[in-house]
């Protein structure tokens, strides 16, 4: 069962925005864009719109018929992000999928969502796992939980890398791990939000 995060109008507006990508294979799809905006909204830092552009459209970028259309669609994008920010501030920016026994279609959408979410986290990677923490090699319980949450996001986003990352021996084990990680994704997202709120409180 899927919780409604984007309204029908928002889906149409963002879908139209993505149509102007010069390379649709590089650009986000709508589900990936939703995950990206979700991640940006909960990241405790400020962004300039140019930071989103390559993430959303890929290296090829986008080309609009005229400046008026470009401005209108980018305003639509900013409104969605502003709404997500408001929900986050209210403690109501919740993971958009309720999982029971996810089927293949749900898993594919979860993977897309996690790709966008992971890309958002990568824009400020130092906030989620600073280099000095990685370099010391021994984690506190909180750091270990944070790393586990990041690994869950990575595994759901890129299932073809699960066997390598988690040192599994067969594709069957990788598929089973993917389903398991997908079930843990809501808790991982919630834990990352908790970390973001801690950073906010320390700012």
Structure description:
The protein has 10 helices and no strands. It has 203 residues and is mainly alpha-helical. The protein has 2 domains: 8-89, no CATH class; 104-202, no CATH class. The chain is globular and about 50 Å long.
User: Helix count?
Assistant: 10
Distance between the termini: 37 Å
Main structural class = mainly alpha
Poorly predicted sequence stretches spanning 5 or more consecutive residues? none
Number of domains: 2
The biggest beta sheet is recorded as:
none
* Share in β-strands: under 5%
Mean pLDDT: 91
Radius of gyration: 17 Å
| Strand count | 0
Order of helices and strands: HHHHHHHHHH
Helix content: 55-70%
Shape: globular
What topology emerges from the helices and strands here?
Elements lengths: L7 H12 L10 H13 L6 H9 L9 H23 L14 H19 L2 H4 L2 H6 L4 H17 L4 H4 L5 H32 L1
Helix pairs in contact: 1-4, 2-4, 2-5, 5-8, 8-10
